[in-house]
């Protein structure tokens, strides 16, 4: 617990945390919910013009993430993710994808995202594996910092990658940022969270910022304007005239 005295006299950034169990309980135990509907404004920066999008994201815990994107009151894209993979359609160009999570990993320049990681990213939860043996936990007046003390090797069928990982948490254990640097390439991913508030007993971030650097660079800003815990329908079907995009 950080006291007023601590803030007047900040602790050294490298001071180890004695009560690690409390920290891990707060950052690793998942929130309890059946479903969450998130209304957001989304700004995407890729170097080309993309209008501000209005997004509806519906998360059914451990089962599916459904998203609908609108621009100027027109539906422009829709997608659904399940533990089996991702389906999505571009209503403007009349194309669709049907893939495993390779599509999302390619988008973020990483190789470890699966369904549960996606849920955690959207809800501001720790989405990378952390352990006391491979990370160093320190504390100062601003909160907690987890730094990988050895490169984290993640092996998949497609790629073997090594990451240096740094996570920042607030004094109340809210996740502030996650930075993953691929030590074997220029690729880097940073996701940051702010505007945390409590909704029906669950702390959720109002702002999510995703910065992708490396072989391709882009930025995604999500401003979550409303959280709703009621159930909703999640229709998804692809018109027969749409063309399938092959993931390479």
UniProtKB/TrEMBL annotation:
Originating organism: Chryseobacterium flavum
Lineage: Bacteria, Pseudomonadati, Bacteroidota, Flavobacteriia, Flavobacteriales
Domain of life where this protein originates: Bacteria
A Pfam family this chain is assigned to: DUF4292
Protein name: DUF4292 domain-containing protein
